[in-house]
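Quick one, tokens below. Sequence please?
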């Protein structure tokens, strides 16, 4: 995993795990690696991974079974909410960027429709 020096590593790792959950690479109930194993895999500090897991437990994305390890939530509604939150963030970033270069809401919609039609034509 390549890290961006402008964003704290723990946030980048959290976002990657969330993305993997939403994309189905990590399924509900899957066990995640131990903090030590994951820190070795990513080449980052053990305490950073421990923080990631703690933060994600507070967000109810991960849960720990004492003596067994840490797991992805088994709540489908929580995963759906996570997917929605991530999509909303992407949309907000898109809209802000488009507004900064002078696009109106209507122009954005037309551009999206044009791009969608173009993609349908090449598939």
């Amino acid at each position: 995993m390549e890290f961006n020096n402008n964003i704290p590593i723990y946030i980048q790792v959290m976002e990657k795990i969330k993305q993997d959950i939403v994309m189905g690479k990590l399924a509900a109930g899957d066990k995640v690696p131990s903090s030590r194993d994951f820190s070795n895999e990513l080449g980052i500090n053990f305490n950073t991974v421990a923080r990631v897991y703690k933060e994600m437990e507070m967000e109810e994305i991960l849960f720990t079974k004492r003596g067994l390890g840490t797991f992805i939530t088994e709540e489908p509604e929580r995963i759906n909410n996570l997917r929605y939150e991530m999509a909303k963030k992407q949309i907000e970033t898109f809209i802000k960027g488009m507004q900064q270069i002078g696009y109106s809401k209507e122009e954005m919609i037309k551009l999206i429709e044009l791009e969608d039609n173009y993609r349908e034509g090449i598939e």
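The chain has two domains: 9-74, 77-122. The chain has a mean pLDDT of 94.
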